[in-house]
Write a structure and sequence with these properties.
By secondary structure, this protein is α/β, with parallel strands linked by helices. The chain is built from 16 helices and twelve strands. It is globular and about 75 Å long.
């Protein structure tokens, strides 16, 4: 099999080219579409070869929990798009995020995290880590004084999302990275809302970037997959042993689906972002909207940070409707074109009520700490015609 390394290493390629050509490995058959290798194990020519592969002294695959040709193509492609040295894919986004934040830690360590996080991420930090003897603290992601104070007290890992789920809060990645470097802390950034098309956390000083590839990278609501990206030495020393033994492996079929999704990632993100910007303006002008948050709108409280570190506003909108949960439910139930769904990054526009879905495990106090109340709706903009989407959203707002 040709590994295509002479072409996949083209760091000067533009993102759209990397998303189509990166990591390409063709078999002797010369297939144009990437090959799908549905196998759990691999045969060896000899016992000596088996021993050498298992020791890492010879190239080749040994078991699909450790890696497969299809997953390897995806890992090379994602690393090229992200500008990372290496990548590992996992069975889900939470498989990637939980591995990225748990593998480096031990009892007695301390973690500092932004208050605004996806509900499951907050649950791991607030509920699971203390069981392992890990101290945890949350800070307002926009408060650099709080970051400086808590990181200076000593910590081993910092976790942020920017834009954060669900209200699109911004964190100054470069400023937090500088604080982490001074304290010797690992900075992990969940970049799922921005995608590597609009934001490159490694370029801003992050150590590790994680994704739910279930979202924009698949982009068509088909499979679960996650990704961890960082430098090769840290991956081999810290993450590889954890991933091999704990086993959050990605299925080759799911990796193949995401490989094909990546080919249109930039086209989709650019088009969805353009529509999202238009919808955000239309929603903000409606009398039944109490508030709207979109990273590239000047009234976003963290506009300056988003504008500085993102190349576009992204595909996500957060809107608050007047009338609380009853009004929010009425808005959602009045949508005809947009689906009610807690996924995001899809070609189909999706909306959900975070307080009762994605963040329902959090107490009212925890939700309030991130500015979330029951009036908020998270809106993922798809690829439908912008006129049709605007008509559907404004009609639903009229019904509130």
């Amino acid at each position: 099999m040709s590994n295509g390394s002479d072409r996949s290493g083209k760091a000067s390629w533009k993102p759209a080219t990397k998303a189509v050509r990166g990591g390409l490995m063709r078999s002797e058959h010369g297939e144009i579409s990437e090959a799908l290798y549905l196998t759990s194990g691999y045969a060896y020519d000899s016992a000596e070869q088996a021993m050498a592969r298992m020791k890492g002294d010879a190239p080749g695959f040994v078991y699909s929990r450790y890696g497969s040709p299809t997953c390897e193509m995806l890992q090379q492609r994602l690393a090229l798009i992200e500008g990372a040295q290496t990548c590992r894919v996992t069975g889900s986004g939470m498989g990637a995020i939980s591995s990225a934040i748990l593998a480096p830690l031990k009892a007695g360590d301390r973690v500092v995290a932004a208050t605004a996080l996806f509900g499951s991420c907050r649950w791991i930090i607030a509920n699971q880590m203390p069981k392992y003897g890990i101290e945890t603290v949350f800070v307002d992601g926009a408060d650099l004084d709080a970051w400086e104070r808590e990181i200076a007290r000593g910590c081993q890992l910092v976790l942020i999302e920017s834009p954060a789920n669900p209200l699109l809060d911004g964190v100054d990645i470069a400023a937090v990275a500088k604080l982490c470097k001074a304290a010797g802390a690992l900075l992990v950034v969940d970049n799922v809302f921005a995608t590597p098309i609009l934001q490159r956390p490694l370029d801003l000083g992050a150590d590790v970037v994680v994704y739910s590839a279930t979202k924009h990278m698949d982009g068509q609501g088909r499979v679960m997959l996650g990704a961890i990206l960082c430098d090769s030495a840290y991956m081999e020393d810290v993450y590889d042993p954890y991933l091999r033994h704990i086993g959050p492996a990605a299925a080759p079929f799911n990796a193949w689906v995401v490989l094909k999704g990546l080919e249109t990632l930039k086209l989709r993100v650019d088009a969805q972002s353009a529509t999202a910007a238009r919808l955000a303006d239309a929603i903000a002008a409606h009398p039944n909207a109490a508030a709207v948050r979109y990273p590239y709108r000047r009234d976003h409280p963290h506009y300056a940070v988003h504008k500085r570190q993102m190349s576009g506003g992204g595909t996500m909108i957060a809107l608050s409707v007047k009338g609380g949960q009853d009004a929010a439910f009425k808005f959602l139930n009045s949508l005809e074109l947009v689906d009610i769904c807690n996924n995001l990054g899809d070609t189909k526009s999706l909306a959900c009520h975070p307080s009762t879905t994605t963040h329902r495990a959090l107490t009212d106090e925890e939700q309030a700490a991130m500015g979330l109340d029951r009036s908020w709706i998270r809106f993922s903009v798809g690829l439908e015609d912008a006129d049709d989407l605007e008509s559907d959203v404004l009609r639903a707002l009229n019904s509130v």
